[in-house]
Design a protein that fits this description.
- The chain is 89% helix and 0% strand.
- The longest helix has 66 residues, at 14-79.
- The N and C termini lie far apart (79 Å).
- It has 2 helices and no strands.
């Protein structure tokens, strides 16, 4: 991406200035669109990671709970 610098003719001719400003704004718009696309992709990745993380935490917690209940039940059954 090129940067459109000010040129001497721009200082003296309004039409040249307007044309160069239009080019600058088009370049800015294109760059912002690329940035917006990247942020959207990153947002979707984070949302997916968060969802998968919660599923893993809940699944692991359930497994640990079942193991603890089984252990307590085994201990209690052997005490009697």
């Amino acid at each position: 991406m090129s940067t459109i610098l000010s040129i001497p003719a721009e200082r003296e001719d309004l039409a040249t200035h307007v044309d160069l400003c239009a080019q600058r704004y088009q370049e800015l718009d294109a760059r912002l669109n690329v940035l917006e696309t990247k942020v959207d992709k990153l947002t979707h990745m984070i949302e997916g990671f968060s969802s998968n993380l919660w599923k893993t935490v809940i699944g692991t917690g359930g497994t640990i709970l079942v193991a603890l209940i089984g252990s307590v039940a085994t201990i209690v059954s052997h005490i009697k």
